[in-house]
């Protein structure tokens, strides 16, 4: 077994509650089906993180798991993670606080979301290793955002709250902000994320056919 990499892999997640999860996807397939897809994506992501030899694993969560699709399976999987509550008035502030709170474990922070269920333990291990040799790493998303952000020092991430999120230039703006702080940024692999029904097939092709995401979306004929 590989020695744990001295990195904290952090998943920023939202409970997959019907009507609140994946609202753009829900516009096409319905609130319950979108929540089922979100639950599958979250569980596949947590499985990949759990299989990665990292020193710490954290989920920073918002939403009511009691109302969520797949609640029992998610709760069971979270037993192997440190679980923290999200804090902040908007998404950018919650991301900044997630990095700050996770940094208290004493390791560099590699943060991902739950929109890239095709992520693998091997890819996360590569990202963690890259972070140990860099000041920051960023995994670009095909839509112009990012799916991973790693910081060797995540204790003072307030700058992240100033970056506009969920835009086609979020990735560029994040790199600019990092470089503006004098940090050298190493880029990771580019992945597609799941926001709309048009993204599903692209991501499914990159997933294991036996993954929850593949099975759920295939059953829904998405």
Strand order of the largest sheet: 3-2-1-4-6-5-7
Query: In percent, how much strand structure appears in the residues?
Result: 15-25%
The average pLDDT score comes to 96
What are the secondary-structure elements, in order, as H or E? Answer: EHHEHEHEHEEHEHH
What does it look like?
This protein is an alpha/beta fold and 222 residues long. The protein is 40% helix and 18% strand. The protein has a single domain (5-217), classed as Spore Coat Polysaccharide Biosynthesis Protein SpsA, Chain A. It has a 7-stranded mixed β-sheet, sandwiched between helices. Helix 2 (31-50) packs antiparallel against helix 8 (212-219). It starts with a strand and ends with a helix. The mean pLDDT is 96.
Summarize the structure.
The chain is of the alpha/beta class and 222 residues long. It is built from 8 helices and 7 strands; from the N terminus they run E-H-H-E-H-E-H-E-H-E-E-H-E-H-H. The protein has one domain (5-217): Spore Coat Polysaccharide Biosynthesis Protein SpsA, Chain A (Alpha-Beta Complex).
Q: Which SSEs are present, and which pair or pack?
A:
Elements: E1 5-14, H1 23-29, H2 31-50, E2 54-62, H3 71-78, E3 82-85, H4 91-103, E4 109-112, H5 121-132, E5 136-140, E6 146-151, H6 170-180, E7 185-187, H7 197-206, H8 212-219
Parallel strand pairs: 1-2, 1-4, 2-3, 5-7
Antiparallel strand pairs: 4-6, 5-6
């Amino acid at each position: 077994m590989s020695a744990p990499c001295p990195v904290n892999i952090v998943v920023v997640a939202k409970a997959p509650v019907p009507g609140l999860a994946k609202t753009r996807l829900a516009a096409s397939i319905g609130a319950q089906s979108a929540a089922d897809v979100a639950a599958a994506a979250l569980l596949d992501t947590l499985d990949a993180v759990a299989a990665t030899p990292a020193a710490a694993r954290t989920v920073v969560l918002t939403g009511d798991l009691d109302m969520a699709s797949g609640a029992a399976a998610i709760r069971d999987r979270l037993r192997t993670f440190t679980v923290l509550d999200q804090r902040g008035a908007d998404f950018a502030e919650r991301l900044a606080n997630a990095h700050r709170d996770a940094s208290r474990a004493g390791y560099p922070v590699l943060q991902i979301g739950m929109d890239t269920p095709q992520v693998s333990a091997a890819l996360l291990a590569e990202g963690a290793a890259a972070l140990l040799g860099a000041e920051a790493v960023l995994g670009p998303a095909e839509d112009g955002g990012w799916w991973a952000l790693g910081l060797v020092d995540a204790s003072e991430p307030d700058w992240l709250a100033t970056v506009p999120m969920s835009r086609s230039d979020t990735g560029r703006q994040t790199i600019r902000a990092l470089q503006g702080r004098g940090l050298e940024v190493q880029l990771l692999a580019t992945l597609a994320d799941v926001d709309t029904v048009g993204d599903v097939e692209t991501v499914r092709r990159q997933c294991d056919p036996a993954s929850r995401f593949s099975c759920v979306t295939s059953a829904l004929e998405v």
